[in-house]
Each structure stands twice: as structure tokens, then as C-alpha cells.
Model the fold of this input.
Amino acid sequence: MNISDTVPHQIILWVIWFAFLSGLPFFVVFLGPDPDRAVENVLPFPALLAVIPPFLASVIVRWLVLPKVAKQGPEAQLVILVVGMALAESLVFFGIFLFPADSLLFIVFAVIGMAQFVPLWALPKRDQGSGLRA
Done:
């Protein structure tokens, strides 16, 4: 039984994308640093160096891997969506636990990384004729 046999594939992708994205505020509010206290980063190197690898990995997954895997079927698309979203969402946890002084930087990059996975690519393609009607 395929995923597309039970529920429309696009709905599944949109629900998963929305669930990942809607979890971010909860992580920040309930796990984030206390705004009344001064916090320091746990790791000694600059926060920007820690942002780049997971963000770049999610960009590569979205723009290089996903278009190739999209031809293999809905199950492969779902797996790549979850992997890419998890890479982008990992930035929030890095910001909360390892770089609390710079957590806003990580949150912004996480939102950008997750926003690129909006499942518009999974919508059915319409016939794009010449635009002229006879």
C-alpha cells in the first residue's frame, strides 16, 4: 500500500511541514534561555560558524537532492522533506543549548531553512499552454 493510496500526498507533506514549523515557537518559549538573565555561549567559537553547516546542508537537500528524488515517488519525497526539515530545525536546538547568547541568529536561520521546504513543489502541475485562446 502506497502513501498516495490512502491520503492525498500533498496534504501529508503540508501537515508535516506545518507541524515542524509550528513547533519552533514552543521550543523557543519552553526551552529557551531566560530573558531576565545574562547568558553566555557554551562553545568558545563564533556562532556564525555553527550556523553555516546545518543550514547549508538543508539548502543542499532542498535544492539539489529533492528535485532528483521527487521523480522516485511520494515516499522518497516524504523522507527527504523530513531530513531537510530536521536539519533546519536542529539550528533552533543549537541556538538554545549551545549558543544561548546568539539564539536569535539560529532561530532566524532555522525559519529560513524551514521556509524553503514549503511543499509547493509537490502540487500537481497545471498545463501551461500558450495562454492564447482560440
